[in-house]
Amino acid sequence: xxxxxxxxxxxxxxxxxxxLKDINLHIKRGEFVFLVGPxxxxxxxxxxxxxxxxxxxxxxxxxxxxxxxxLREREVPxxxxxxxxxxxxxxxLMERTVYENVAFAMEAIEMPRHEVKEQVPAILEMVGLEDxxxxxxxQLSGGQQQRVCIARAIANNPLIxxxxxxxxxxxxxxxxxxxxxxxxxxxxGTTVITATHDRDIVNRMQKRVIALDAGHLIRDEERGEY
Amino acid sequence: xRLSSFEYAFRDAFRSMKRNKVMCIASIATVAVSLLxxxxxxxxxxxxxxLANVMESELEINAYIKQDVTREDALNLRRKFxxxxxxxxxxxxxxxxxxxxxxxxxxxxxxxxxxxxGNNPLPDMYRLKAKIAEDVPRIAGEVEEIPExxxxxYGQGLVERLLxxxxxxxxxxxxxxxxxxxxxxxxIATSIRITVFARRREIGIMKLVGATDWYIRWPFFLEGxxxxxxGAVLAVLALHVFYANLxxxxxxxxxxxxxxRDTNIILNVYKWLLLxxxxxxxxxxxxxxxxxxxx
Lengths: 226, 295
Fold this sequence. Notes:
The complex is a heterodimer of chains A (226) and B (295). Chain A is of the alpha/beta class and 226 residues long. Helix content of chain A is 33%, strand content 27%. Chain A is built from seven helices and ten strands. Chain B contains eleven helices and four strands, in the order ααβααβααβαβαααα. The longest helix of chain B is centred in the middle third of the chain and has 41 residues, at 158-198. The two termini of chain B are 21 Å apart. The interface between A and B is medium-sized, with 23 and 19 residues.
C-alpha cells in the first residue's frame, strides 16, 4: 500500500536540515501503524511527503503502486481524496456547523448535493455525534471536535487515514475515545497511520510501531511499544 | 465541473460577499463610478463622431467646368463624376442657375447681370458629395484630373480639422478608459485578495481533502464577476437616466445640435459596459488568485 525506498528529505535554507535520512518502509493495506519519536524526529515531514505536500529530495514513494514523484500537479487533488487527515488542532471551520464542516469535505470533491445530504448524518452517527448536527465547534468539547475532524477525514471513504497527534490536545479519557474510533475505522479496512507522543496509548494498543529519531528510522516492530 | 459544484460556488460567493460587506460595496461603487465615467466619455465620443458625420455629409466639392466646353459635353460629364469611387451624389449647376443663386444672395435691388455688363461670367459646375469625409481630398484630386474641369473647390482644411478633432477625442477617450479600468481592476483585486486571505484556512483544508484548484477558484471568480456586473448595472442605470434627460433638454432647447438618439447604438454601449464590468471583475479576481492561491 505505502512503500518508501531510500527516502531522504533535506530542507535547504540558512541552515540545512536533514529531516529524513534514507528511510525504507512498507505499510500494508489495512495496517494500524504508530509513528513515534521526539519533536523534530521527522514525523511531520513524513506525513507531508505522504499527502504529496512536498516531494522527497531523494528516493521513491509508492502509494497503491503509484509513484508520488511522477504524479502530475493536476492529479494531486485526486490523489489526496484517497487520504483522510486528522489534525492535532482539529482545523474545523469555526463559523460553520458540525454538519457543514463534514459536508464541506464532500462538496470539495464535487459530490452531488443529495448524496451529501444523505451521507453526512450517517458519518456523524458513526462517530457518535448524530445529535450535534447543528452545533458550532465552540459549543463542543475537545474530544467532540476531534470526532468531527475524524468524521470529515473519513467522509470521502479514504484508503488511508493519517492522524497527526490526534490526542495531543485531549485529556486521557477523551484520548481513548478518539483512539477507539480510529481503531474502529481501521477495522473497516482503512489503513491508519498515527503520529503520537502518547506513550501510554502506544504501549497499551500493541500495534506496529515505527520510531524515528533525527530523521533516521531507528525501530520498526510489530506489536511494539513506545 | 458538476452543476452542484456551481451551486456551492454561488453559495460561497454570496456568503463571502456578505461577510466582507464594506469592501464589497466599495468595489461595486468604484466599478460603478469608473464605468459611469467610461460611459460618459464613450457617449461624448459617439456624439462628436455623429456631429462630424452630420457636418461631413454637408461637405461638398465644387468642380468648375472650362468655359469652352459646350453645354452638351458638360452634361455628358456626369457619368465621369459618378464613376469616381466614394461619390455619393452628383448635381449639375448650370451657369444660369449659378447666377440666379448669386442674385438671390445679393437681393433684388441690384441686378448683377447689368453690373457685369450683360455677360454671365460664371462657369457651369458640378456639385459632388462624398460618402465619407476622409475621401473628400482624394475625390477632389481625381476630379482635377478630368481635362474639362477648370478647377476644384472644397472646404479645404475644415475636413481635416474636423477629422483631427474626432480622432483626438477618441484617443483621449481610450486613455481615460484604460486608466479608470486599471483602477477598477486594482480595487477588485484588492477586495478579492482580502477575501482569499480571510478564507485561507478554509482553502488549506479544501486542498487537503482533495479539492481541485478550479473548484477553489470558482467562488472567487464569481464574486469578482458579480461585483463587476452589479457595478456595471448601477453605472448603466445612472448613465441612462442622465442621457435621457440630456437628450430631452437638448431637443427642447438646442434642437440645432445633432445629438445621438439612435437607440440601438446606445443600447450597444450599455451592453458593452455590462460586459466590461463583468470582465474587469474576472480579471481582478484572476490577478489575486494567481498570486495568492498558493497554499
